[in-house]
């Protein structure tokens, strides 16, 4: 922002367009969110603190954060593999594979939830063999992780793909011709370029996973202290007439979302800066 | 700069458009809601808890028929099902339910506390406004391989228990109090009761949010050795899945579960549906209503109705919440509120 | 785009492709297959009767109605945001952009909760609405609002960066040649971004049709009145009607499929719009 005014000034329609934008934003997003903040600030700060530091709330927040983080990291790894294969190789079925990546994004979360639960239950297609190996999936933290990886996959693949495609393979060749080994070329040339989109994609997956409800609630088992995720606890508290507790926890989740968005903005700026 | 000044003078049109859109959205449902007058077919909404889906499907059809024969008017009963606390919460927040038929009195007390239902509601209809009762039984795997016969067996090491979460499910609170009360009823003290319930919840494998979710987990997903369930829910699961999949075990003592029904005064007075809503609830006490309750595995208040439906219920020595826990408010405060005994069980495990 | 040359040994390449196929199969194809296997477990007749049940039909209608309101609202909003934020620089612009993105990161449960808090009977506004017989939450308007909220960023997210990268040269040229705002917008700007707009609309529609968490909080779950298709799936799932639940789920999966294909098609065109 070089000057504190609107640029350019030649085009018309800035006022109405910004008016509609801000009005929509205020009515649909900001006013309801303000209602949440107002409700949660109605109590004293001490009450707020007490509500979000009970062992059960802390356990739910820790579970949600750790699992979303782990799932985001795993999605990033899988995303790296998938985007690499989709961008660098040509093989039959590539187009179909590419289109399928969006399935978790397009599939309603409730459908994903009941389907994954059916698959990974101890008597499901995948759950039965896994259970015989002594790895129960559904109704354990692992099951939640599976649902979150499913959910996060499109985000990591779709952020990596364009960057990988834009990277000139010639640079790797040049590095190779200068005597760098394959591993060295990847580490020195590719990795710095891929790190920003990798982190961006993982952050998107993390943000989505942290708040996810539909695909997780069926498979999670919902045990307090063990497999109860934070969004479910918001619902639970509301249902037992604990509005203050529900809004306090919801506020924590909201602040986390906002912080993640700010982080994403920084990451995107970093990625843009690095490429230019 | 001139452009900016000029262009800011035009957001009025955009503002008007947006306001119009919002107004249209708001009016969408308002019209049919207000139109529930005389000539139109009457529509009432029954917000109920999870396991009553099958019961009210029968009751609603029978009542609509009876109402048309008696008054010549058509009535449509809409249903909403969910956890008992969730439903009460929704009504508190504005769900326009004419009647609520919930899992326990505490959830209706919550409506009374906020003025939606008039005080003293439980004396309005016979039998504590509870037209049918149930009890808590065990659903086990075929042949009962873990030999689960009594409440004490649930706390044994190596027994995997499925029950919904007492925080969100009314049925689960009955489960919890049934276990607790069985110890008191045997002449033992609070410490023993606490030990049993702690052992029981240490054995819990999955804690679904609602009674129906737990049944699904146990029956369809094959998790756990024993499901704590409403008697009606257990019989329904048996009917749905067959005797080769699950068996019912009835303990010697259990709780008398009384799921109450009430007209939501604030809603019926605004919508003008009090007469039909009250007739609907009274129908539950009629011979036909009682027969349908028995048919759907609820224990009717009238024993003739049970006989007529061809139903016999296993004898259980029951106790009530009032007998052993001093009523729902006291039980809720001591056991299920945040920081109560149930929380302590989970935090200290 | 020129076909990239691969630098890895053939064995490595085949291994990676194999791993990619295995991942996709395990994570995406098996769940997809499971939906349809469960949906047709009792034959095509049972599937047909499940999806033509009156409650299911109403749920489909309601879902379409909600999408039919939410998607155009967000398309108009996205275009306005694209114009204001893509073509102009002004103080506070990046804050507005972040706020537009917010619904994407907010938990659906929180999204539903805020509407209950704002319009529920216990809030001042909700109390006033209830007294005047206007239902917002636990009725269709609440479902629409929650859906608009969760799909809010999708069109704007596509249009703002594109319109920003396209710059203002063409529009300024049109202005110099004497075109008014509407001529400039509809003849110059809109054709330049039409594929990206459609792309955003597809994403928005997919999410609007499939939203579960937020809608579940504000719906009230009244069968035949406020149950959208995803909520109908949940209701059936809770009634021992597994086959019915998956039959309804298969409809949603088909919508998701259509969205995926449309997205794949559009993303090729949308790529051409980038300068």
Which structural traits does this protein have?
heterotrimer, B: 349 residues, alpha/beta, eight-stranded mixed beta sheet, four-stranded mixed beta sheet, globular, disordered N terminus, C: 275 residues, mainly alpha, MetI-like fold, 2 domains, 12 helices, 0% strand
Question: How would you characterize this protein structure?
Answer:
The complex is a heterotrimer of chains A (276), B (349) and C (275). Chain A is mainly α and 276 residues long. Chain A has helices at 14-42, 45-52, 55-88, 94-100, 103-106, 109-120, 127-132, 141-166, 169-177, 182-211, 214-217, 230-239, 243-275. Chain A has a single domain (45-275), classed as MetI-like (MetI-like fold). Helix content of chain A is 77%, strand content 0%. With 349 residues, chain B is of the alpha/beta class. Helix content of chain B is 50%, strand content 15%. In chain B, α3 (53-71) runs antiparallel to α13 and α4 (84-92) runs parallel beside α5. The longest helix of chain B is centred in the first third of the chain and has 24 residues, at 11-34. Chain C folds into 2 domains: 8-39; 43-273, MetI-like (MetI-like fold, Orthogonal Bundle). Chain C is built from 12 helices and no strands. Chain C has helices spanning 10-39, 43-51, 54-86, 93-105, 108-119, 124-131, 140-166, 169-176, 181-210, 213-219, 229-237, 242-273. Chain C starts with 9 loop residues before the first helix and ends with a helix. Chains A and C meet through α1, α3, α4, α5 and α6 of A and α1, α3, α4, α5 and α7 of C.
Arithmetic mean of pLDDT of chain B: 86
What pattern of helices and strands is seen along the backbone of chain B? HHEHEHEHHEEHHEHEHEEEHHHEHEHHH
The largest interface is: A-C, 101 and 104 residues
Total number of beta strands of chain A: 0
- CATH superfamily grouping of chain A: MetI-like
Whole-number average pLDDT of chain A? 87
Q: What fold name stands as the CATH topology of chain A?
A: MetI-like fold
- Over the alpha carbons, how many angstroms does the gyration radius of chain A reach? 23 Å
The share of residues in extended strands of chain A comes to under 5%
> What is the C-level CATH assignment of chain A?
Mainly Alpha
Task: State the shape of chain B.
Answer: globular
Q: Any guess at the CATH architecture of chain A?
A: Orthogonal Bundle
User: What would you report as the Rg of chain B, rounded to the nearest angstrom?
Assistant: 24 Å
């Amino acid at each position: 922002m070089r000057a504190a005014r609107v640029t350019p000034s030649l085009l018309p329609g800035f006022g109405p367009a910004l008016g509609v934008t801000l009005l929509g934003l205020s009515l649909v997003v900001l006013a309801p969110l303000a209602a949440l903040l107002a409700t949660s600030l109605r109590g004293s700060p001490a009450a707020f603190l007490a509500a979000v530091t009970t062992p059960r709330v802390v356990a739910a927040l820790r579970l949600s954060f750790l699992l979303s983080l782990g799932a985001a990291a795993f999605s990033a790894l899988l995303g790296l593999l998938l985007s690499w294969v989709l961008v660098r190789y040509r093989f039959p079925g590539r187009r179909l594979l590419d289109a399928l990546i969006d399935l978790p994004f397009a599939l309603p979360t409730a459908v994903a939830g009941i389907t994954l639960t059916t698959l990974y239950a101890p008597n499901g297609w995948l759950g039965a063999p896994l259970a015989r190996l002594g790895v129960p999936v559904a109704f354990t933290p692992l099951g939640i992780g599976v649902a979150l990886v499913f959910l996060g996959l499109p985000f990591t693949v779709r952020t990596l793909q364009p960057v990988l495609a834009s990277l000139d393979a010639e640079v790797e060749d040049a590095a190779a011709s200068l005597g760098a080994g394959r591993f060295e070329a990847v580490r020195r040339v590719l990795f710095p370029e891929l790190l920003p989109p990798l982190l961006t994609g993982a952050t998107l997956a993390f943000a989505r996973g942290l708040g996810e409800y539909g695909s997780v609630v069926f498979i999670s088992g919902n045990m307090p202290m063990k497999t109860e995720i934070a969004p479910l606890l918001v619902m639970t508290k509301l249902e037992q007439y604990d509005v203050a507790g529900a809004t306090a926890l919801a506020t924590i989740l909201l602040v986390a979302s906002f912080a993640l968005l700010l982080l994403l903005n920084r990451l995107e700026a970093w990625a843009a800066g690095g490429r230019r | 700069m001139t452009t900016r000044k000029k262009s800011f003078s035009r957001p009025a049109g955009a503002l008007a458009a947006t306001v119009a859109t919002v107004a249209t959205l708001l009016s969408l449902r308002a019209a049919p809601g207000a139109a529930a007058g005389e000539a139109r077919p009457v529509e009432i909404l029954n917000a109920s808890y999870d396991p009553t889906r099958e019961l009210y499907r029968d009751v609603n059809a029978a009542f609509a028929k009876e109402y048309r024969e008696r008054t010549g008017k058509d009535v449509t009963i809409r249903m909403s099902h969910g956890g008992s606390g969730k439903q009460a919460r929704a009504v508190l927040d504005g769900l326009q339910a004419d009647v609520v038929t919930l899992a326990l009195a505490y959830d209706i007390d919550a409506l009374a506390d906020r003025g939606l239902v008039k005080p003293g509601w439980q004396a309005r209809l016979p039998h504590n406004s509870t037209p049918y009762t149930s009890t808590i039984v065990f659903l086990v795997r075929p042949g009962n391989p873990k030999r689960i016969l009594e409440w004490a067996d649930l706390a044994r090491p190596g027994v995997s228990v499925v029950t919904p979460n007492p925080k969100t499910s009314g049925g689960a609170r009955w489960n919890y109090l049934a276990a607790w009360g069985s110890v008191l009823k045997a002449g033992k003290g609070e410490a023993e009761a606490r030990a049993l319930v702690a052992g029981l919840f240490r054995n819990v494998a999955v804690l679904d949010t609602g009674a129906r979710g737990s049944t699904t987990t146990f029956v369809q997903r094959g998790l756990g050795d024993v499901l704590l369930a409403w008697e009606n829910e257990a019989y329904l699961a048996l009917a749905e899945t067959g005797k080769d999949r699950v068996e019912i075990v009835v303990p010697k003592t259990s709780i008398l579960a009384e799921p109450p029904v009430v007209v939501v005064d604030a809603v019926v007075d605004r919508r003008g549906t009090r007469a039909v809503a009250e007739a609907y609830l009274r129908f539950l006490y009629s011979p036909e209503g009682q027969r349908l309750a028995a048919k759907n595995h609820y224990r009717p208040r009238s024993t003739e109705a049970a006989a007529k439906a061809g139903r016999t219920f296993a004898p259980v020595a029951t106790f009530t919440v009032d007998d052993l826990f001093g009523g729902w408010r006291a039980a809720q405060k001591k056991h299920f509120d945040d920081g109560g005994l149930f929380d302590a069980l989970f935090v200290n495990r | 785009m020129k076909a990239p040359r691969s630098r890895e040994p053939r064995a490595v390449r085949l291994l990676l492709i194999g791993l990619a196929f295995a991942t996709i199969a395990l994570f995406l194809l098996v769940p997809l297959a499971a939906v349809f296997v469960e949906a047709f477990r009792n034959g095509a007749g049972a599937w047909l009767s499940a999806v033509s049940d009156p409650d299911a039909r109403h749920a489909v209608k309601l879902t379409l109605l909600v999408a039919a309101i939410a998607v155009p609202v967000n398309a108009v909003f996205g275009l306005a945001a694209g114009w204001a934020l893509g073509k102009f620089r002004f103080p506070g612009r990046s804050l507005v952009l972040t706020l537009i993105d917010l619904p994407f990161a907010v938990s659906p449960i929180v999204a539903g909760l805020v509407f209950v808090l704002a319009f529920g009977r216990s809030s001042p506004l909700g109390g006033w609405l209830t007294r005047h017989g206007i239902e917002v939450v636990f009725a269709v308007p609440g479902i629409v609002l929650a859906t608009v909220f969760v799909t809010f960023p999708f069109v704007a997210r596509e249009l703002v960066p594109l319109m920003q990268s396209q710059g203002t040269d063409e529009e300024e040229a049109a202005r110099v040649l004497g075109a008014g705002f509407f001529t400039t917008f509809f003849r110059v700007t809109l054709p330049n971004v039409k594929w990206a707009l459609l792309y955003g609309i597809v994403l928005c529609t997919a999410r609007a049709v499939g939203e579960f968490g937020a809608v579940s909080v504000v719906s009230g779950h009244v069968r035949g009145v406020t149950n959208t298709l995803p909520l109908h799936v949940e209701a059936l799932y809770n009634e021992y009607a597994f086959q019915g639940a998956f039959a309804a789920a298969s409809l949603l999966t088909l919508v998701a499929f259509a969205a995926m294909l449309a997205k794949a098609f559009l993303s090729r065109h949308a790529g051409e719009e980038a300068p």
